[in-house]
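Input record (one chain):
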Amino acid sequence: MSNVIYQSKINQIGQFAPDALADGMLILFKNGAPSDLADYCFVHSHDDLKQDIQSGQVFQIGKHAYQITSVGDVANTNFRELGHITLKFDGSNQAELPGTIHVKGDIPNQLFVGDEIKILTN
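The corresponding structure, as predicted from the sequence alone:
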């Protein structure tokens, strides 16, 4: 059975966030993101991260679920403090940038305000 180690909801979608998504990146930032960054982000209500994000866990957003394949060195710290990470949908086994989490699966076509974000572990 999976345990939920993180849960929040999308509250706002920045003007350019769908463009980044179409390029294979989903940028998350908690409520209160600086306005110049918020334009590129899916802004979400932020919750406590109950344990570190690790490869093998599942990142769920809306109706989509993705296996986490690698986690950058500062991704957990950034997510805990700022609610900020970049998801890349390329399934890479090595994090490209320190704040990036790589996942395996098809890029979602569209996300909506109110979509739930969950991270699940076994």
